[in-house]
Design brief:
By secondary structure, this protein is an all-beta fold. Helix content is about 0%, strand content about 50%. It has strands spanning about 5, 10-15, 20-25, 35-40, 45-50, 60, 70-75, 80-85, 90-100, 110, 115-120. Strands 2, 4, 5, 6, 9, 10 and 11 form a 7-stranded mixed sheet that branches.
Length: about 120
């Protein structure tokens, strides 16, 4: 298990950008694939992006492809989500999570952060 804490959320106008960070505890961060998920009010939790343990492979939901970029710095035990061209429908609580393998399925993730709110005004 690893402890995760997200930061970088906030209020931004449509078309703007935000960069989320997720800091992990422990010395085993590089052994985990990482993912970002989001949950909007009244909606199910949604996969956003995932990155492999080395960072060489990434995968995105169609709704964010071309606008969001996931990356990681294993030396800093941190995973990032750069969000550009934000839309009102991106408004949600964003969570980072750790898994054994890179996957889109939330049940495969064993550790979750508390989340950070992203609000996009139109």
């Amino acid at each position: 298990q690893v402890q995760l804490v997200e930061s970088g959320g906030g209020l931004v106008q449509a078309g703007g950008s935000l960069r989320l960070s997720c800091a992990a505890s422990g010395r085993t961060f590089s052994t985990y694939a990482m993912g970002w998920f989001r949950k909007a009010p009244g909606k199910e939790r949604e996969f956003v992006a995932a990155i492999s343990r080395s960072g060489s492979n990434t995968y995105y939901a169609d709704s964010v492809k071309g606008r969001f970029t996931i990356s990681r710095d294993n030396a800093k035990n941190t995973v990032y989500l750069q969000m550009n061209s934000l839309k009102a429908e991106d408004t949600a609580v964003y969570y980072c999570a750790a898994a054994t393998i890179m996957t889109i399925h939330p049940v495969e993730y064993h550790s979750w952060g508390p989340g950070t709110q992203v609000t996009v005004s139109s």
